[in-house]
């Protein structure tokens, strides 16, 4: 990926001709006619070189488009639905301007995997380390649907080396900050910075794992084998296997393993077999509870989704809007289908320059008419991604219609 900045002219052309305002409106509003979910929604714009404009709000998709094209931001972010229109906040008392609703959001970034991935470092990302993000998406998507019952999950590529999740179920939108904190607490398994070796502390002593995490363990074991042992070979080098030994913390076991591994070079797979064999050796073939717990915790530490918890805890946290352009890579932050996350390749996501080229070619062959039409994205490789969002919006709107029918007339706001 090149590190060149996207020019303001290119950004403006993208905002004028390609950004799917109508789909974004439907996704945030849940209905065709504007509701508070849209009109009372905060937008924030990042303007070059370093201005940040907060508390913007709009009546509809056209007003949003007009402002985006006028400001030509490098990116823009979406905040909560407030009790008053954010642009009017100075005319209402502070107590009357509070966040009411907000999608439940999650952020997963490659930065949090730097100490376990062996293939790349820093800003680098490849097909192999994307597997960490893919695994996190699969596990978190399942856990959220199974444990919390949410259905309207939108995964969005962050444009570089991470992914965002937006949950639009009514119950998720209505969560208070306290409830969000509790929910994120349930889903947080990995804690502590670089200096902390053992990052998993989710059980009491050697008791079994909490049920939610236990449910994920089977698929995490598969990921551990394929990704950590085979592909990344995390325990090949001394730094890697020393970390592994520290996580075992059974002196007799680690002493025997260290003696063996110092003499002979063994693959991560072989070392993990050694761990299992040594764990059995002390107790006549049966693995002691301490070692079962230690091995499960190791699997969790290397495979469980690493969340940036702060993003999820507060309703007023702003998060980059889908379909913005990453200023460094030029890639569009497109929605991603979690069921095919393993075959998603960040380097195949269209860049803004590529899309404008496609549009020019389509325009030239069609006689160059209607260049500012709303659905110009249809002529480009952005189409499958906007279609994906539109299907999501259609399902969300159907759900809202059904809920309204059940609630009877005039109960919505
Ligand atoms: Zn890599």
Automatic annotation (TrEMBL):
It comes from the Eukaryota. It comes from Rhodofomes roseus. Keywords: DNA replication, DNA-directed RNA polymerase, Metal-binding, Nucleotidyltransferase, Primosome, Transcription, Transferase. This is DNA primase. It holds the Pfam family DNA_primase_S. The keyword Transferase applies. Its EC number is 2.7.7.-. It is an enzyme of class 2 (transferase). Belongs to the eukaryotic-type primase small subunit family.
